[in-house]
Amino acid sequence: VGCARNPREKALLRLAGDAGLRASELATITWGDADLQGRRLKVRGKGGKLAPVALSTACRDALQALWIADGKPSRKVPIFGITRGRVHAIVVAACKRARIPSRGVHALRHRIGTELYRQTGDIYLVAQHLRHSNRGTATFYTKRASHGRLE
Asked: HSE of 31 in the Cβ direction (CA atoms, 13 Å)?
């Protein structure tokens, strides 16, 4: 996030990295989907399902700064108003500036899933945070978290 060039990039990187949002979700959220006081965000995930996402304090603060920088837009205005491809390009460019390898937006989702599992050991919490409809999908993060321990 330290490599973000402006409040928009900082908010986008926070939502991808902390909240685990997919590129398609980042591209479509509006200010009406954000409850900054309640630290919640409504996203339309796979299959168009609407789901709540808990926001870290850092996510909330980044969104608040962007909302102010954008002139406090109305609820109907998209937060980012960009395509999935542009979301991906922003993440890749930020990683390049930070001199770290990038595998795109989804890699950030994997990172938070793995880190959340390492911290809590709770696969159900990981599945809920990442909005997996099938809890078995979240077992991927247990394997990633365990891999580092073997080394």
From this structure: 14
Phi, psi for residue 85 in degrees, rounded to 5: -60, -40
Do residues 55 and 19 lie in contact, with contact meaning Cβ atoms separated by under 8 Å? yes
Confidence of residue 134 (pLDDT cuts 50, 70, 90): low
- Global pTM reads 0.82
Residues sharing a CB contact under 8 Å with residue 121, sequence separation 6 or more, in sequence order: none
Sheet holding 50-54, edge to edge: 34-35, 40-44, 50-54
Contact 56, 5 (CB under 8 A): no
DSSP single-letter state for residue 72:
S
Is 65 exposed, middle or buried, given 0-12, 13-18 or 19+ CB atoms closer than 10 A?
A: middle
* Distance of alpha carbon 16 from alpha carbon 68, whole angstroms: 20
